[in-house]
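Q: Predict the assembly, please.
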Amino acid sequence: MKQITAIVKPFKLDDVKAALEVLGVQGLTVGEVQGFGRQKGHTEVYRGAEYTVDFVPKVRIDVVVNDGDADKIVGAIVEAARTGKIGDGKVWVTPVESLVRVRTGERDADAI
Amino acid sequence: MSHLLAVHQLLADACPTGKYIPVGLTDSKGAACAGSGQVDSGATAWVLASSALVLLMTPALAFFYGGMVRAKHALTMLLQNFATIGIVSVTWITLGFTWAFSGTGKYLGDNHFIFLRHINDTVPALGSFQLIPTMCFVAFQLTFAIITPALITGSTADRWRFGPFVAFVTIWSVVIYAPVAHWVFDGYGWLNRSLIEPGGHFFAQDFAGGTVVHINAGAAGLAMAILLGKRKGWPKEQMRGHNIPFVLLGAGLLWFGWFGFNAGSELGADGVASAAWVNTNTATATALLGWLVAEKLRYGKSTALGAASGAVAGLVAITPCAGWVSPMGSIFIGFIAGFACAFAISIKNKLGYDDSLDVVGVHFIGGWIGTLSVGFFSTKGTNSLGNDGILYGGKGHFGGWNLLLHQFLAAGAVTLYSFFGTLIIGFVINLVYKHRVPEDWEAEGLDTAMHGESAYDWGGVGNTSGHSGISIGAKEGVPA
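A: Predicted assembly structure:
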């Protein structure tokens, strides 16, 4: 099993969700996060003064999938989230040792 | 019995002479005594209503400022403003009023009205022009004395310990506000002089408090902002207001209350009061537009926060002008103030003082713009008691450029007295009780750290009760 984590622009969440549904993904977890990458924040104006904002708001998406589906799903997320402009985000994959469904106690692949 | 006899004899005699004469006194033939001021019910009703309108401005200010601070400091700001109502309501009726509005001194009143004694006597400066009971005048002026120190809280936001703040407002309302009110609002004051100079000419004209309220609060706000130092993280960190709808709610209520402030300052219900009403609305409207235009030109976007700030800048600027200028003049006064103040709020970043919510940029600069505008836009067409300004052909000893010079001197005198007086008061209090909150309170939020409550209690993790509450000690068995 793999955990796929995607950090994307907030307004791209719906597109990514739709792409994952097409591939049959059963569930995912999202959260609002903030951070910076190579662009290093941006400049904002508030009440007559300019400020550098270090952290840019993003959405984080986590989904656990079978090993064989990981590449396909990463590809779909990247395609759905890309605008071509700076700040599109990142997607990475990490191995998952075990998984349990809380209600039934099913484990690993059965719990996906 | 002897007391009643004395009153009877007094009434039977000719009218008494002297500075203090009972309101509405008549001679034995029933004619009004000169200087006794016959009470007019229309004027009294309007000024009492205006007093309530102006009192509402301080809670309005609390929301205007409260929305502009971060959520963790919101209640501290609201509390400072409400506490000011509590404090000044007492200092004003005991000492402040008498030092501002009794006697015939140039620099300070006397103790005639101390603890509101002799309250059935007329205010010497109003004399036979007094259409309202003196107690009504006390009420009206009280609300001005409350909002002036409340305005200071904007420049000192998020770092003033509550105890020294209370001490400051108590002293400031008597030592700074009352004398300045006497200088400018009282006809015997050295910046007003309408009862000293021949012909009843005003030295400087301040209809409702451009100098007394706004320049005064602005200069004091600057002094306290410097004395307190910068907020932790300023100017690098962007300290965005947490609730812009509150700011607009506050600005709207300020606008509403300001009709009492300006139109009520006529102390009568007449044409000048009506002109002051229309002028107030006109200048506020154009200042709102002026600020939006300035923002659009500078950054490409007009903001709701800018609209609220522009409206307040217009209200400030029209305050000294309200009963002297025409509605057409008000269009220009408002627009200039809104446009200029939108730029003035950036001065603090260049000079490096943390005027947190722009009391200097809006009230001090706006107060100066309004006070000087009188020298240009004042017209006898609106108010025959005033002088004509430069644009209305004013000339001679008191009109035109002379009036502008006098406006400048009055604004300058109030600026210097308020700035240095505030520095001294602030410095002395600091020797006894440090103004500045500890650094960790500032990081945590003054609401929980200083007052044990929070504005927005959403509950803790998993819907347990939230973090707010006054801590009265460590849990039993847990090391403190």
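Helices of chain A lie at 13-22, 70-81. Chain A has a mean pLDDT of 93.
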